[in-house]
Amino acid sequence: MKFLILLMFSASAYSQSCVVVKGGKESSFDGKSVDGLSIEKKSLNNLNKAFPALSVQEKVFSGSIQTCLNCDDNYVKCK
Amino acid sequence: MLSTTVKKSLAGLAIISVGNVFAQDVNLNGFASAHVTQKLGGDSSPEYYNQNSSPNFYNYTKFGLNISSNLSEKWTVASQVLVRGNKQTPGSELPQWGMYANWAFVAYKPQDNWRIRLGRQLFPAWLVSEYIDVGYMYPWTEVPHAVYDMAPFKSLNGVSTDYTFTLDSGAKLGVMFFGGQEYITVPLAEGGNETNSYGNVLGTEVSLVTGGHKLRLMTAQYNISSTNDGKTYTDNRNTTYIAGYKYDQNNWMVYSEAGLREGGNGSTVLQADTPDMKRDRIYNRRVLGGYLTAGYWFGNYLPHVTASSATFDTGSTEGTQDMYSLGLNCKVAPNIMMKTSLGYSISRDGNAHMDNEGDSTTAVTGFDMIF
Predict the structure, then answer these.
(1) Considering chain A, what percentage of its residues have pLDDT values greater than 70?
(2) Regarding the domain delimited by B29-370, which CATH topology (the fold level of the hierarchy) does it fall under?
(3) Does an H or E element contain B284, and which?
(4) Which end of chain A is more exposed for a tag (fewer CB within 10 A), N or C?
(5) Which residues of A are less than 8 Å from B103 in CB distance?
(6) What residues are paired with B178 via a beta bridge?
(7) Does B65 score more than 80 pLDDT?
């Protein structure tokens, strides 16, 4: 039972996979900083859930970082 | 006076800038709140509720839109437009609805951790200054008046620059300098208007963010000049100090701020207000206030308690107003928060911005959302 709970917890913790798209390449997002990056709008809630310490929603609603709908480069998206 | 050539050049620049904005992707992020406030009992009422015994549907009801665009990798334009109910027209029972520009600035980032903003921007006085109208982002149905009524304006026209240092531990140390001015016209209950100008605003903010903790200190100075019935009153160099702490991680949530505002020489009593946040405030020379909020997330439910106190030392209104509130928030969707709170206010040693020396119990309920 404990193993099952642990498995469920692990699955939920790692269900948010976020990447940085830069120069046409995708690399894993480490969650340390969003400086210089836009956030794909539909990924906003997932990014906030995956990295609460980043305070991404605060930064978006304070105008510190931008969201993008049709992102072309230099942005974060979560699957 | 600007010459005609300069004016034409500025107009041309504005048209080109607007053209550039629409040539780029325009980002929209919105927020909305709908609240109803009901006085339940007591022989007094805090001025900021601006209500009688009837339910008030507009005190904290609002709709806002952030509009922004990246002009290039380093240049951004951003604005926030807010629609909300304001004070009642003198003698009328109906609310006035108005649209306000909280921000309209151009930002330049020479480096990822260095930003310069020029234009209309939010006065960075408090912990939640930068999203003060986005109710979804903070736990209360309304920001605690003991500290958030301490400055008479929340936006300023000017310039700011902020730089963020990343320390070896991973903590972020931010330093901001800002300056500007603000003008506010307040309708008076007896008719007419009072025009308040807040000039030579100069201030600095230092913040430290590590893990779920945020600690910040802010100090600002500004001159006040007020024109009422053809007379002008001035109060040079008001000073405001505000310290804040926030912890919001691992289910626990704590917010606390304390502040002191002191008037300068030649101080007079002012009828200060912001267009949408405060109501009929008699401004005092010295205000000392603070609050503490604590809560715990049980899944999607956040029960929280707040205790606050503000002491008004001089002016036509004196005394201390204490307030205690219980709140329950429920996240009904990833972007929608239902909130209910029950507040008890009591004044002592004077009216302390209540209708009279006494107490009041008020309930507020509604929702806040972002989209």
Answers:
(1) 80
(2) Porin (2.40.160)
(3) none
(4) N
(5) 63
(6) B160, B203
(7) yes
